[in-house]
Amino acid sequence: MPLYEVEKSVIVLDIGTSFTKFGFTSEPAPRSIYRTQVKSKGQIRELWDYRDAQDLYDMLVDFFHDIYFKYALNSPKDKPIVIVESLLCPIIFRETLAKVLYKHYGVSSILLLSSHLVSLAPLAIDTALVLDVGYKEAVCIPVCYGMPMIHAWQALNLGSQTIHKHLQMLLNEKNSGAQNLSEMTLEDIKVRCCFVTKKSRAQQLQTLKPQIEMCPEIKYPVKGSTTISVCGTTREKAYEILFDEDADHLCLPTMILDALMKVNIDLKHQLAENIVLIGGTTMAMGFKSRLKEELLCHSKEERYKKLNIKCFKFHTSPSKENYAAWLGGAIYGSTDCLNTKAIQRRNILKKRNYLIGRI
Amino acid sequence: MSAGIIDIDYVKYACTCGLLKTLQQLYFCRYCSELRCSFCVSHEVDSHFCGKCCENLPSPEARVKKNRCVNCFICPSCHHELSTRIASKQPATPEEAKATKRTYYLSCLCCRWSSRDIGLPDQTSATGSWPKRKTFMQDKEFFKRKQKEKIISYTDKTGITAASLRKRIGLPEDKPILKLKNAVKMVTPSIAQEDIDDFDEEVLTKSINLLEITSIDQRLLQPDVQPVEMNMIFPVQKMLSIKRSLRCRSCEHNVSKPEYNPNSIKFKIQLFAFYHIPEIRIVTVQPLRAGVPAELLIKFTNPTQHQTTISFLPFDTPIEIKESTAEVGGSKGEDDTSDLDKSLPLMKVIPSGAKVMALVDSHLNMSRSSARMVTPRPLDVSINCDVEIPSSTFILPPRDDAAEYDDFNEAHNIQDDKKLVIWRKSNKAFIKLIVTPKEDTSIGTVITAGFTMSHLYTNTITSVAENKKPQKFNHNIKLILDLGKSVGSE
Fold it and tell me: What CDD domains does the record tag this protein with (chain A) (predicted)?
């Protein structure tokens, strides 16, 4: 491939609460996935733990400095950028992000894409119920014929963070020395040892004397000196928090069913037969099959009788789930969308000056 | 930035953008005569290089190679750099020793992972021949190439194009190739499945070895594959690094530009504030008590080749931000920046009258450069100590490297205010200031004092360009001094 033929590639970014997915348009996988952290004033901070707009501005400046000069190795000036974000992204974050990119880095345009919508692009479908289970929360938004049904959105405070807390609690029950494990260690235990078990086994685990054979125990070394035991019940129960109904009788499967309740009757069956799971947490072993079991079980409940759905079908993404939304962004970014739908810097500046002039 | 002995953050300089930095972290744009810091300059990628083998690549080539070095790898297990090792296989017979060539493998000196762990065969050459993992993308390209190879064009050899041939024979014009290009290939939509089997029954009975399962960082190092098992990991090509050049946002001149060669740590352009702004260090301070005046000794050093005069102003002296017009230095003046600036009221004329600086409201200015200017923010500091501002000024002679080694040359013909200047030698002077911590400071609070330093700056940049005398003007900088904690009464 001659050098001059290389197309100008555009950065695609999916800033997740825990991990940021970074890559270029028209590539099948992100170049790197790394923690959404910023090193400011000698300490490492999570980007999403910002105090106010000014604090966020400073952190985002550092964050994008890393992206451009450590990962992309590109000057940001007068170049477009594609950002994949959740529809429920706070206004303050979005506005500060735009300020940093337009003002500080002088990008020519930003294409903002909704993560739920674009994650359908790799599957080449336009109607599906998208459930994004990330670090902080799980968000479910049905997408019908390329249009996210915002009125039917469901969000719950369920994600990796909840699992980590639950896991810590389970470990504390069995180990005296496991009081304060770092989030990273808990994440590692979760990733390497835990899995989503079957519903029948989960029900048995609820009882006082489970009539099942436990899965083997794992000795997990911590800091090289101590060992904590991750027993079979812990391994199976870590993810259970996602499927246990809370005080309002809500959990992951009911989110999907509640979302289905809110959409038009003609779409209910179609959406139930097109469920797309995105987000890193959905990559856990057994997650999909368990969710299906739970869905079937919950749909028989009195409150969901009206739905009358007997069959749930899931899509399998060609990519890993944790960067499914990013991949959608990379596909959208390589089309004409980038020129037509992106917000141009000159338009923003004009509008800003116009507004200032009015006041 | 330089750490250690010269990067002590007790004395901080307020950058034009309002951030507090040490002198070593600041730049000084000679064209705008303003302090700049890493936050308020624009960064640009200058050159790409590999941090391990120090090979530099032109940026288009780096882009083609996906910003990765061809020869260097990092360990997929611990992210450390892998080193190439010679395989030490003892030959069984002397004949074999002659026949066999040297072979190489990759090994991590940090965690002892080696390319043999995943069954990668040893290579006969040290660089360049390491097998790459077949990815989805590479497969696709392979198919494309295969398809292209099937259509063999004879017209190139004969010089007859298909179109001209058709005309000759009398066939109507046809555009089969164009049609093919325009036709959008429909993608087959994904079909949802009802039966999902992502649960492995084996996990319930089989005990697992933690060392065989990758951690999340090891998985994410290879985002496309995200291997779960340790024997699936693969050496990763090392990311390239860059050298950055820094540019002033208001006049677009470089304040720092490194040399191209990755081995060189020198700069082509380096406008560090360290070479232009007097350096201030705290020598000593008397114990600080609330409401009691204390003596503060600070040392001033003049780093420039020109004599300077330093005077003190109260901390809250407003510092005007100058917006330099585009024709400073005569480099450009073609765009509408200058016209726009002229149409706006000129609010300040710099003395010694060479250049007109317009104080332009940054909101009104639509020009390209100023739209990217960093709006100054208020200083994030609380001053809890009054500084008695001396009315007299003092002179700092130019820097003279030879004087550093001259112990006897104490003679200097400078008339000093003896109350202000305690001691001086070559380009350095000890200054005494009286500081009074505020009455209501409790014991143990950190005392912060601040004042504005006005120093006479000699700008030589325009004199070179236009054969004029170097212009001199007073440059004001706000300084914040961390004087340590207050103590109780004696």
Answer: ASKHA_NBD_Arp10 (cd10207)
Going from the first residue of chain A to its last (359 residues), give the mean pLDDT of each consecutive group of 10, the final group possibly shorter.
59 94 91 91 88 92 93 89 92 91 90 93 92 94 92 93 92 77 91 91 86 87 85 90 90 93 91 93 91 92 89 90 93 87 84 50
Per DSSP bridges, beta strands A80-85 and A109-114 are parallel
Same domain, A17 and A111: yes
Type of residue found at B270: Q
* CATH number of the CATH domain containing A198: 3.90.640.10
Domain span holding position A336: 3-119+322-358
Burial class for B52, CB neighbours closer than 10 Å (0-12, 13-18, 19+): middle
Calculate helix-pair angle for A252-262, A287-298, nearest 10 degrees: 60
Distance from CA of B138 to the nearest CA of A (A): 10
Residues B289 and B406: their CA atoms lie apart, in Å, by: 40
Question: Which residue is closest to B136 within chain A, CA to CA?
Answer: A28
CATH number at residue A287: 3.30.420.40
- Contact (CB<8Å) B188/A3: no
B450 neighbors B480 (Cβ within 8 angstroms): yes
Cβ distance B372 to A286 less than 8 Å, yes or no, reads no
Of A4, A193, A349, the CB nearest to B371: A349
Backbone angles phi, psi at A216, to 5 degrees: -60, 150
| β-bridge partners, A35 | A19
Q: Which residues of B touch A70 (CB under 8 A)?
A: 239
The residues pairing with B272 across neighbouring beta strands, listed in sequence order, are B27
What would the two tokens of residue A205 be? 């685990």
**Which of B39, B198, B203 is opposite residue A289, by nearest beta carbon?**
B198
B252: alpha, beta or left? (left if phi > 0; alpha if psi -120 to 50): left
Q: H or E segment at B1?
A: none
Amino acid symbol at B214: T
Q: Which of B68, B142, B198 is the best residue to mutate to test the A interface, defined by the most A CB atoms within 10 Å of its own CB?
A: B198
Residue B270 predicted with pLDDT over 80: yes
